[in-house]
Write a structure and sequence with these properties.
heterodimer, A: 99 residues, mainly alpha, B: 242 residues, 0% strand, elongated
Chain lengths: 99, 242
């Protein structure tokens, strides 16, 4: 972890990947892919974030407890999204007034 | 670091490199009283930052949820309003932040290698890039004021049918980028502290751990922008409505 010194080339590779990811995101935004536009852009953003967490933030050399904390925060975020969206996305599905 | 430094070694004299006296005290000036080893101390500091970042993820998660719901209610006005953001300036800021994350990673690396010059150089670069981001943001914000795109009584939108949704988009735009900018300002403040401390430190483990912890915060702010950029600047660019 703190004793592990990463090679400079690793950081430069990740940097390059982040820049390419940004370029692809902008390119995709100008193409009409329908619903895929959002999915591709968010997919790239998630990939970029994962690279930053794993390499720049050294998560891959962290302790099991730290890894669990990172994972748990993502799970909580998904719970937040899922539970709110399962309400908003299903409103109006039932034929009752007032929804 | 292995997990045993977190759980098993909680009492002095149970295997830590220091803290061998029976009272649980040690002579290491860089080690706080309640830790057994520098490694354990660094581990605890970083875990603390990650727990804080978990609350930050939920904090921004709430704003993102608001964004999702309002965008689902008004997808066309959102796309039209997104066109009024400056893609060049937004892209420039994305690049500034990614480069600043790279220099921050190098600052952490050089601090761990006890290379003071490299550490300070990379830290100063990070701070310059972060300040550059805020300067660009200032020009973006002031341009929105000039063009009456700030939500409120002076908000103007040509297509009246879309005005409400567009105003909601700009509300979210200012809320999301504003919260992000506040985090940038706090980050710059934290970096200033470790810049001043770095000039006289001999790079004990405690300081290296501090630099790495500040780095975690800086990278997190970068990650937030990685999501804000496509969500705010790039929606519906492919069709030229609005």
């Amino acid at each position: 972890m703190s004793e592990h010194i990463e090679k400079k080339s690793v950081y430069f590779s990740i940097f390059l990947a982040l820049m390419v990811g940004t370029a692809v995101t902008v390119y995709v935004a100008f193409q009409d892919l329908g619903i895929l536009n959002n999915l591709v852009m968010l997919g790239i953003a998630v990939t970029k974030a994962t690279l930053v967490v794993m390499f720049f933030m050294h998560a891959r050399h962290s302790s099991q407890l730290t890894k669990l904390t990172i994972l748990a925060s993502v799970v909580w975020l998904l719970i937040l999204f899922t539970f709110i969206l399962q309400d908003y996305l299903t409103r109006g599905m039932l034929p009752y007034p007032g929804k | 670091m292995s997990a045993d430094t977190v759980g098993a070694v909680t009492h002095a004299g149970h295997g830590g490199p220091v803290g061998t006296d029976p009272d649980g005290h040690h002579d290491n000036p860089h080690l706080a009283h309640h830790f057994d080893s520098e490694e354990q101390q660094t581990e605890a500091t970083q875990l603390g930052m990650w727990v804080f970042l978990a609350t930050e993820i939920m904090f921004f998660g709430g704003v993102l949820t608001a964004y999702m719901i309002y965008r689902m209610k008004a997808p066309v006005p959102f796309a039209a309003a997104s066109h009024h953001l400056d893609l060049t300036l937004g892209g420039l800021n994305t690049i500034l932040l990614i480069v600043s994350s790279l220099t921050m990673a190098f600052a952490v690396r050089q601090a761990a290698l006890k290379d003071r010059r490299g550490y300070l150089l990379n830290l100063i670069m990070t701070m310059i890039l972060g300040t550059g981001f805020l300067v660009v943001k200032y020009f973006e914000y002031s341009e929105k004021f000039t063009h009456h795109l700030v939500p409120g009584p002076k908000f103007q939108w040509a297509n009246l049918g879309q005005a409400h949704g567009a105003e909601q988009f700009f509300s979210l735009y200012f809320m999301m980028t504003g919260l992000h900018a506040i985090h940038m300002v706090i980050g710059l403040g934290l970096l200033t502290v470790i810049l001043i401390q770095g000039r006289r430190t001999t790079f004990p483990a405690r300081f290296k751990g501090r630099v790495e912890t500040m780095g975690l915060y800086w990278h997190f702010v970068d990650i937030v922008w990685i999501f804000l950029f496509p969500l705010l600047y790039l929606i519906g660019r492919h069709y030229h409505g609005g």
